IS6 family transposase
Amino acid sequence: MSLIRKAFSRLHYPVDVITQCVRWYLAYSLSLRNLEEMMAERGIVVDHSTLQRWGIRLVPLLDKALRRHKRLPGCRWRMDETYIKVKGQWKYLYRAVDSSGQTIDFLLTAKRDAAAALRFFRKAIRQHGEPEVVTIDKSGADTAALATLNTGKPDEESITVRQSKYLNNLVEQDHRNIKRRIRQMLGFKSFRRAQTILTGIELIRMIRKGQLHHPAEDRLSPAE
């Protein structure tokens, strides 16, 4: 919270009001104007554009804090990509979960190709280390990216690649929670803003899944 207070030190709203508004926006199917009206009913006058700026400013801080305290996922990954509309064009959200449904990582990219898939895998591996097994669909781009990662490794150290539509149902079902939330947003107006808001939505999902390690976690709700 000290990091958040420093970032918002020049604003005229209490930090708990700011964090509450951002959490509601990321967690529930609310538009910014819905949230503006809800806060007005509670005696807090704040414009929807201000609410949006709060989210853009706060989410990177939350991401930095959560990644320091995120539980390590399993070593068997299920990876897939889904479509996200940005400025009227389809972009690609790469995502992976482990065999128990815990979120491993995510990455929004402009293209769906081997280079984008490789960027995603390298980002996830920097945070969590290499997996033992990765399950993908029949995507040639994902296969090529994993082949690049395995280049020069002995067989016993290589990542095992499985191609199974049935086994990848777990990550495909997990996509739905993200798509359900962004449906109310009616599309993103910029790629950078889409990256930030999607990061916030993913963080809230990880907290709900119990992926944040906290000393008092047994006594805290996801909201707390």
